[in-house]
Design brief:
Helices cover about 75% and strands about 0% of the residues. α1 packs across α2. This is TetR/AcrR family transcriptional regulator. Pfam families: TetR_C_28 (PF17937), TetR_N (PF00440). One of its GO terms (molecular function) is oxidoreductase activity, acting on paired donors, with incorporation or reduction of molecular oxygen. InterPro entries: Homeodomain-like_sf (IPR009057), HTH_TetR (IPR001647), Luciferase-like_sf (IPR036661), TetR_CgmR_C (IPR041479).
């Protein structure tokens, strides 16, 4: 009897993210993931019972990766003003793989509205403590929104933003956060 092949959950998640990124969230099925990985549907279901389990694992993995980078930038305990600056820096510095994961998750949100509440909570946490009644708070909120807009435009491929332009955009956002906008 042949020894069962070991199934690597991270490889399955990598393939799932690739499917979503290349073909859209609707293309992510257990069958499609099995074919992409060269295993049986039962092999996928050994690790994930359903498409929802795959999506949950994709979100969980991204949150861990992002939170590690964010925490290193924001410090402990996080100050309100540093939270937005850390988010801006984490988004700017995010490597292509992390940003591609985030973009694929955003695409998956369109197909899986049940994940919207956790995403809303995540966004609320990023802006926690920002006082939008002050000029500094309004700059922080605007910098956050500009960061998210630039990210979505680039990684959802709505605009072609090369690395130089990306750096220029984030230099402008940093200037906004510093309050040096004329």
């Amino acid at each position: 009897m042949a020894r069962p092949r070991k199934i690597d959950r991270d490889q399955l998640l990598d393939a799932a993210e690739e499917l979503v990124r290349e073909k859209g969230a609707a293309a992510l099925t257990i069958d499609a993931l099995a074919k992409a990985c060269g295993i049986t549907k039962g092999g996928v279901q050994y690790s994930f019972r359903s498409k929802d389990d795959i999506l949950n694992a994709m979100f969980d993995r991204w949150y861990v990766d992002y939170d590690r980078q964010f925490s290193a930038l924001v410090g402990d305990p996080p100050a309100a003003g540093k939270r937005v600056a850390a988010h801006v820096a984490a988004t700017r510095q995010g490597d292509a793989a992390l940003n591609a994961k985030a973009a694929s998750l955003m695409a998956a949100l369109l197909q899986t509205p049940e994940h919207l509440e956790s995403t809303r909570q995540w966004y609320r946490e990023r802006l926690a403590g920002v006082d939008a009644t002050t000029p500094e708070g309004r700059r922080q909120r605007l910098a956050f929104l500009a960061t998210e807009g630039a990210f979505l435009l680039r990684f959802m491929r709505f605009m072609q933003i090369d690395d130089d332009e990306w750096d220029q955009i984030f230099a402008d956002i940093a200037t906004l956060l510093e309050g040096n906008v004329g």
